Structure to design on (251 residues):
């Protein structure tokens, strides 16, 4: 019986080494790519962090500068710690200038409000009106200050001879936050009618105030002025003895 010839198995050592070497090089290339990507990412994050720090520093600097302008403006407005005495008009002009610089640097609600006050004190009622309207448009969420701004706006409309606009503003004040300032709007409207010589309209507003807001702090004045007006209408009191009501925010 013939012997079977066994085939000699040749080991492919060279090929396997090449494959291992190729896989190793490929892996190293991948690691290098990931390393480069990581370096780029870290660099980018570092740049962003530096930018954020720079912006924070800038905004902090701007805020401090605006705050300094605003504090100086208050000092002139209220005549506090001034080295040289100034007249009221000079103080209000300087205060206006500083509040405007504060707004140019970084706007704030109070700076805008006081710009209106400065114009009003200087008798520039139209610019005061513009300043208060900017406040109302820009700072709708400043609910603690808005009622006061409405009242200031009313006073300046009246002084500028714009009674119809004053009444519209009082209506807006009456509707503000579900009417919590309606009694104030009514008393100011009564004052306006009284100052304009519209006594019947004034009495009507006084009576509406007394009826709808019995606990209002304005009720003592309302009662006194209603009684006075009714006596005047009946001829029981000489008109010369009546003291007219002051217009809103006349002080």
């Amino acid at each position: 019986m013939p012997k079977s010839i066994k085939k000699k198995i040749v080991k492919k050592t060279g090929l396997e080494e090449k494959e291992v070497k190729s896989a190793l090089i490929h892996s190293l290339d991948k690691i290098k790519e990931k390393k480069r990507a990581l370096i780029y990412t870290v660099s980018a994050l570092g740049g962003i962090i530096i930018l954020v720090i720079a912006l924070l520093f800038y905004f902090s600097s701007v805020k401090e500068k605006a705050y300094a302008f605003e504090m100086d403006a208050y000092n002139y407005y209220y005549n506090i710690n001034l080295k040289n005495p100034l007249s009221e008009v000079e103080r209000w002009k300087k205060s206006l200038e500083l509040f405007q610089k504060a707004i140019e640097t970084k706007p704030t609600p109070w700076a805008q409000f006081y710009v209106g006050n400065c114009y009003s004190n200087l008798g520039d009622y139209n610019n005061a009106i513009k300043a208060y309207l900017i406040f109302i448009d820009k700072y709708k969420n400043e609910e603690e200050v808005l009622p006061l701004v409405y009242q200031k706006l009313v006073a300046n409309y009246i002084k500028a001879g714009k009674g119809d606009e004053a009444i519209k503003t009082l209506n807006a004040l009456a509707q503000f936050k579900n009417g919590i300032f309606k009694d104030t709007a009514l008393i100011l409207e009564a004052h306006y009618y009284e100052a304009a010589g519209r006594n019947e309209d004034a009495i009507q507003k006084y009576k509406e105030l007394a009826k709808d807001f019995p606990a209002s702090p304005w009720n003592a004045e309302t009662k006194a002025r209603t009684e006075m007006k009714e006596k005047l209408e009946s001829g029981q009191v000489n008109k010369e003895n009546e003291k007219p009501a002051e217009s809103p925010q006349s002080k």
